[in-house]
Amino acid sequence: MQTNLRWNRRGFLGTLAAFAASTFAPRKVFGSTRTATAEASAIKLTGLGQTGNVYEELGVTTIINGEGTMTTLGGSLIRPEVEAAMQLAAQHFVSIPELEVAAGKRIAEMLKLPQGYGAIVTCGAAAAIQAGYAGILTGDNVNLIQQLPDLTGMKTEVIIQKAHRNPFDHQIRGTGVKLVEIETREQLRHAIGPQTAALHFTNFANADGQIKVDEWVKIAKEANLPTLIDAAADTPPISHLWDYANMGYDLITFSGGKAIRGPQCAGLLLGRQDLVNYALLNNSPYEDTINRLAKVGKEEIVGMVKALELYLAEDENAMRNEWWRRLDTVSSAVSGIPGIRVDRFVPDIANHVPHIRITLDPTKIKATPREITQQLRKGTPSIVLATGERGESNIITMNSFMLKPGEDKIIATHLAETMKQHSA
Ligand SMILES: *Cc1c(COP(=O)(O)O)cnc(C)c1O
User: Fold this and answer.
1) Residue 76 in contact with ligand 1 by CB distance below 6 A
2) Is residue 230 in contact with ligand 1, taking CB distance under 6 Å?
3) Is residue 16 scored above 50 in pLDDT?
4) What is the 3-state secondary structure of the chain?
5) How high is the mean pLDDT of the chain?
6) pLDDT for the residue 424
7) What is the mean pLDDT of the segment spanning 189-200?
8) Per-residue pLDDT tens for 18-55?
9) Ligand 1 center to residue 336 CA distance, Å?
10) Alpha carbon of 383 to ligand 1 centroid (Å)
11) Residue closest by Cα to atom 5 of ligand 1
12) I need a labelling partner for 12 at 20 to 30 A (CA). Which of 19, 218, 308, 392 fits?
């Protein structure tokens, strides 16, 4: 029995570790994981995994990802060292609440969060949003925790700027509260009342709302209301991990499975220790809670701590240079084609990483950006690039931070070939 359990455990995680090891990281980053990886690759799987490519065996196409940390594409590729730590975490039973507290303490220390701030690991940033608001509403009252999303006896509204509405505010509404949309400072003052539970800020929408990130938290403090900032995709820069806590935000969320390259089903809820504690009480593993559906396992909790440790040690300049170098490979392959112009950009916030914008002159290129990206998506290998957001119809964009070594060249070749086919 014991042997069987061990085999299954290693078989499962080992497959992932071996996959990540063989396909993702350059050999030099492997120092600390060589043992775990060697052990994992020594397991010979029969059945699923026998070829080393579980996706091919299932008939699912693997993708070269020039679009970024999209959950629908699998988010990001986990660091091999994180896989190794998860494999170690999988070998023992522990109390999950005790582990959450210990992990939170380690995370708060690593990030040098302000005095009185703590953290928990959730199953993603979306789960952190819902747990965070649930905690604000219920405190540590067990009856209220069990009662959500019935808000009887609790506050009922969260205020948000209209421009900050986005699909992830579903997790705020999931607690039962009503979102009150405002645009001006005047409207905000009027909206605040005894029914207001909190103020929400969507970090990527900072430029679009009238009230900016620093002013929003000041107004919340004056009104003595907690405020949660959703910064899920907002590293790099790494310093964002503590910037919003230092600014005074009461709760802050980040995805673990985006640029941090932690476990795909992990996220961070950072913030005031009391609110973080209340969020945990509303979260798995506790039952009869609204976030019991957002289970986070011992492997993800440990993996998230390990991922942060590694992320904090990254050389941001070196990473950025490498990302630009990959994009330059693609730029040089396509910029000579008539009707193509390439320029560089970095989004201010959210996916704040090197990008290129490829502008197509429709009089010279006979296919639309969408037709070109679809052709690449259906090609072999399958490549995903983005078409212009915000209604620009003649633009393809890409970034390179999710590419594996060598994939920049593959994109360059295939994109140039496709463009030339449609070039007049
Ligand atoms: C990705 C994202 C989320 C959800 O994060 P998960 O870790 O996938 O749950 C929430 N808010 C924003 C702005 C995001 O980009």
Assistant:
1) no
2) yes
3) no
4) CHHHHHHHHHHHHHHHHHHHHHHCCCHHHHHHHHHHHHHHHHCCCCCCCCCCCHHHHHCCCCEEECCCCCHHHCCCCCCHHHHHHHHHHCCCCCCHHHHHHHHHHHHHHHCCCCCCEEEEEECCHHHHHHHHHHHHHHCCCHHHHHHCCCCCCCCCEEEEEHHHCCHHHHHHHCCCCEEEEECCHHHHHHHCCCCEEEEEEEHHHCCCCCCCHHHHHHHHHHCCCCEEEECCCCCCCCCHHHHHHHHCCCEEEEECCCCCCCCCCCEEEEEEHHHHHHHHHCECCCCCCCECCCCCCHHHHHHHHHHHHHHHCCCHHHHHHHHHHHHHHHHHHHCCCCCEEEEEECCCCCCCCCEEEEEECCCCECCCHHHHHHHHHHCCCEEECEECCCCCCCEEEEECCCCCCCHHHHHHHHHHHHHHHHEC
5) 91
6) 75
7) 98
8) 433 433 333 333 334 444 454 555 688 999 999 999 99
9) 37
10) 23
11) 125
12) 308
Report whether residue 124 contacts ligand 1, using a CB cutoff of 6 Å.
yes
Which atom of ligand 1 is least distant from the CA of 129?
10
Question: Is residue 59 scored above 80 in pLDDT?
Answer: yes
Q: How far is the CA of 128 from the centre of ligand 1 (A)?
A: 9
Which atom, in ligand 1's list, is nearest to the CA of 255?
7
The reply to whether the predicted model has a pTM over 0.85 is: yes
